[in-house]
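Input record, target 12 of the design panel.
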């Protein structure tokens, strides 16, 4: 009886282990020199750790060579299961995981200390990606900035990139606007996993003041800034200014909006504060 119960729980535990690929590897596509581990349930002698060759192939007992390049973990797993059974193993259950990433890479550009290309050697999330690039250039990412955003640009399926993508030249469907403060707070939807070919673009933390101010221009953003503080930094209102009609041009999800504000309202990085001319 004990043996039967033990066997039941062993099946449950192993079944859970082999249900799919590890979290974070679901969408990863294999490439040359990636190292993977292949395990077959109840056949420890078939466990193999191997690298994808420069030709994109791997070799596995009984099944020979398989073109692994471009396949996800789940797709490679199914292919091995298909080739193993039923000729060699009845109802084979295969697990494939990446133990070392070699072909993957991502880019971090913009307002960071060390912009450049970084290897995707493991599961990496947004905050860690920015940390690898030395953090935000204007300060540190350990202190969340209210309203600060990061833009993640996804590569198209099968797209091979040698350089980062530029936000202004990328369709909105490929861009994700992320709240930096939410990502730093651990929100998994904001601190998303970086995929192969992603470009992480950190905009400069600045704001703009234009029209009826004495010194219109671009200014460095500081946390908790209000409209009045921004106008004061720009030299204050001119004699022709209409302070009550001041508004902000703000971009939300790639769309620019006109936002009516008061002097005590907070501003965000990237905002353009517009002070119109008085009608009288």
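The sequence produced for target 12 reads:
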């Amino acid at each position: 009886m004990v043996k039967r119960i033990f066997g039941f729980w062993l099946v449950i535990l192993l079944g859970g282990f082999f249900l799919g690929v590890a979290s974070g590897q679901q969408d990863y596509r294999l490439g040359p020199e990636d190292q993977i581990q292949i395990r077959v349930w109840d056949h420890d002698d078939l466990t193999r750790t191997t690298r994808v060759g420069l030709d994109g192939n791997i070799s596995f007992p009984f099944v020979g060579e398989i073109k692994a390049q471009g396949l996800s973990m789940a797709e490679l797993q199914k292919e091995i299961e298909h080739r193993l059974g039923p000729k060699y193993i009845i109802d084979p259950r295969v697990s494939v995981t990446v133990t070392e990433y070699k072909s993957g890479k991502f880019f971090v550009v913009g307002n960071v200390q060390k912009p450049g290309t970084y290897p995707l050697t493991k599961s990496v999330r947004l905050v860690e990606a920015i940390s690898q690039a030395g953090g935000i250039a204007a300060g540190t990412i350990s202190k969340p900035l209210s309203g600060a955003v990061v833009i993640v640009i996804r590569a198209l399926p099968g797209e091979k990139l040698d350089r980062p993508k530029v936000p202004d030249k990328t369709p909105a469907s490929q861009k994700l606007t992320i709240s930096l403060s939410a990502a730093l707070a651990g929100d998994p939807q904001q601190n998303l996993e970086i995929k192969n070919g992603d470009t992480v673009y950190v905009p400069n933390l600045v704001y703009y003041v234009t029209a009826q101010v004495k010194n219109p221009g671009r200014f460095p953003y500081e946390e908790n800034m209000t409209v009045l503080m921004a106008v004061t930094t720009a030299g204050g209102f001119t004699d022709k200014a209409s302070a009550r009609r001041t508004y902000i041009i703000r971009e939300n999800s790639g769309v620019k909006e006109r936002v009516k504000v008061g002097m005590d309202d907070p501003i965000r990085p990237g905002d353009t504060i517009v002070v119109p001319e008085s009608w009288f």
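The chain has a mean pLDDT of 84.
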